[in-house]
Specification:
single chain; 229 residues; mainly alpha; three-stranded antiparallel β-sheet; 6 helices; 3 strands; 57% helix
Length: 229
């Protein structure tokens, strides 16, 4: 993102931000991209340029500095609460996996870790804290984590339900879709995040539909759940 702010001498000052810009070049380092705008009664024209090789979820809002600080406190509180709950779930999954040593708990732990990483990357904390001087890594990391999360979600479901004996074709179909997702993961790792976006979305939608169908179909089978006596 590039914002051009007019000056008194009819020139403009450019402010840059986004995943393609080092964090040190941002006006303010934070998960929410901010630009300085001083409004007065004199008409001004601001130019905002948005470029993206991946996807953009763009919402523009005007804030006073004081109100923005209050809103940040609330957002950070909610983010901290969610991340704390996620960390607790990861800890429980880790203890369960080490104690019971069953495949289901290892799959659940892996899925929770991938989902947590996706949450961190989706909100921009990865670039902010892990690689602030390497713009451009964020789309690659996001592509890898989204594919990994979907693949591990399927592994989590199949390990828990164990549907192969009841629905072998459906299980093989899900395995094949996971193979497609893993291909998008590898291509994202090499920088082809945008090119595989459509394939990923189609595969993810098919997986969601098939998993819901599988859950409904498995209700008729009384299964002994992992870890229960």
């Amino acid at each position: 993102l590039r914002l051009h702010v007019p000056t008194i001498d009819r020139n403009a000052v450019e402010f840059r931000a986004g995943s393609q810009v080092p964090v040190e070049a941002w006006y303010r380092a934070g998960p929410n991209i901010t630009f300085p705008i001083e409004l007065d009664r004199t008409p001004q024209v601001y130019y905002l340029r948005v470029q993206s090789r991946t996807m953009v979820a763009l919402a523009l809002e005007l804030w006073t500095p004081e109100a923005f600080e209050v809103a940040l406190v609330r957002v950070n509180l909610l983010q901290g609460l969610f991340q704390g709950m996620l960390a607790t779930a990861v800890l429980i999954g880790l203890l369960s996996a080490l104690w019971l040593r069953q495949a289901f708990f290892f799959a659940a732990l892996a899925y929770l870790l991938a989902f947590g990483g996706l949450h961190v990357a989706n909100n921009g904390y990865d670039q902010l804290f892990l690689y602030p001087d390497h713009p451009g890594w964020s789309p690659m990391v996001l592509g890898v984590l989204r594919s990994l999360t979907v693949a591990l979600f399927v592994a989590f479901v199949l390990t828990y339900l164990e549907p192969k004996a009841f629905y072998p074709r459906l299980t093989r179909t899900l395995d094949g879709l996971v193979g497609v997702i893993l291909v998008t993961l590898i291509l994202s790792l090499f920088g082809y995040y945008q090119e595989v976006g459509t394939v990923f979305v189609i595969a993810a939608i098919l997986i969601a539909v098939l998993v819901i169908f599988l859950l409904v179909m498995m209700l008729r089978h009384q299964r002994q759940r992992a870890g229960l006596l």
